[in-house]
Amino acid sequence: MRHKTDLFTFINPAHKKFMTAFTTADIPSQIDTVEKLASWCGAILFNVNPSVTAIEGTGYSERVSQWGRFWVPADSKTREIIRLSLEVSSSYINADGKPWTFVQPISSTAIPANFKSN
What we know:
two-stranded antiparallel ribbon; 4 strands; disordered N terminus
């Protein structure tokens, strides 16, 4: 069951409503799994939106995109942790469709060139 909420309201009222656009040609050819695509997207959104925040609860805000790699001594592996807080259009409540079609933009910042090559 879906519930309407206003918890994910952006703090910055000047926030522009254009997405970081891309074409499939922007995706480096070495990205050949969903996991690599998730890493690529997370790194881009973190890179182009380092200070954009959203209210995620009463009196609590957080950066909308976070990305980092961390060494985990317990299993001797490096883990990449990606966290996104994406605003969802209120129209999702009364609509059918794929979940991603209701996601709202964070910014209109272009993808940096270094993300478009292997």
